[in-house]
Specification:
Blueprint (H helix, E strand, L loop, with lengths): L11 H28 L6 H14 L1 H7 L2 H18 L5 H23 L18
Helix pairs in contact: 1-2, 1-3, 1-4, 2-3, 2-5, 4-5
Length: about 130
C-alpha cells in the first residue's frame, strides 16, 4: 500500500475507501431520485444526500471530485426542480416554501464550497508513483 502523506486519506487504501462511500451515497441518491420522480412521492432525500456529499467533500475534496462532478450536481438540481413541479402543489405552503429555500441554500453552498474550490482533475497534482510500495 502506497502512502503519499500523513492525512487519513493519503494512502491508496483509505482514498479508495472514501471513494467507495461517496459512490454508494451517490448511487443511493440516484435510486431515491428515480423513485420520488416516478411515484411522485411528496418526500425526497436528494437535498439530504447533497448535504452529506458536501460535508464529505469539504474534508476530502479530491475523493469527491473523482466520483461526483458538476454534471452530477446539475442533474440533482434539475431532478429537484422536476420533483417540485410534480409534487409541490401537494405540499402545504409553509413546508413547500421552506423546502425550496433550504434546497436552494444547500445548492448554493455546494456550488460555493465544492464546485468552485475543488481543482479539476487536470489541475490536480499527479498522484505519486504507486508501484513498489
Amino acid at each position: 500500500m502506497a502512502y503519499w502523506g500523513h492525512m487519513p486519506d493519503e494512502s491508496d487504501f483509505a482514498f479508495d475507501a472514501i471513494g467507495a462511500y461517496i459512490f454508494l451515497l451517490k448511487e443511493r441518491m440516484l435510486k431515491d431520485i428515480a423513485t420520488v420522480l416516478e411515484k411522485t412521492y411528496p418526500e425526497q432525500s436528494m437535498v439530504a444526500s447533497i448535504t452529506c456529499l458536501r460535508l464529505i467533500g469539504e474534508r476530502f475534496p479530491k475523493a469527491l471530485s473523482v466520483h461526483f462532478r458538476k454534471r452530477d450536481f446539475a442533474f440533482v438540481v434539475r431532478a429537484f426542480d422536476e420533483w417540485l413541479a410534480k409534487v409541490g402543489p401537494q405540499l402545504p405552503d409553509k413546508h413547500r416554501n421552506a423546502i425550496v429555500a433550504e434546497a436552494r441554500a444547500e445548492f448554493a453552498l455546494f456550488e460555493e464550497r465544492i464546485l468552485t474550490s475543488v481543482p479539476r482533475p487536470a489541475e490536480q497534482a499527479a498522484p505519486p508513483d504507486r508501484g513498489g510500495d
